[in-house]
């Protein structure tokens, strides 16, 4: 289970990969385990580097069968409170970490 996250101010974000192996996506499709890293002041906008010669630094893909995503949202990938997707992507939406892999059931 791979959890890709663009919420760079979270303590669990390690190069766009979530280091926390158990997370909960709430009924409003937000990551309830988000914890702001108080040491981070300025976040570099790596999206500006997408089309340049210098690629952004991403963490290596960390797929793990030990990972677990509990989900309370009415999502196509949810089965008895557990996400069955191969992985999810969490992005920032309206200032909150939002699961963009969500498909309404």
Describe the structure.
- It contains no helices and 9 strands.
- By secondary structure, the protein is mainly β.
- It has one domain (2-99).
- A hairpin with a 2-residue loop joins strand 8 and strand 9 (96-99).
Overview features:
105 residues; mainly beta; 3-stranded mixed β-sheet; two-stranded antiparallel ribbon; globular
Q: How would you concisely characterize the structure shown here?
A:
The chain has about 100 residues and is mainly beta. Helices cover about 0% and strands about 30% of the residues. The protein contains no helices and nine strands.
Give the neighbour order of strands across the main sheet.
1-8-9
Mean pLDDT: 83
- Structure annotation, total helices: 0
Name the helicity range.
under 10%
Total count of strands: 9
Task: Profile the largest sheet.
Answer: 3 strands, mixed
SSE map:
Blueprint: E1 2-5, E2 13-14, E3 17-18, E4 22-25, E5 68-71, E6 78-79, E7 82-83, E8 87-93, E9 96-99
Parallel strand pairs: 1-8, 4-5
Antiparallel strand pairs: 2-3, 6-7, 8-9
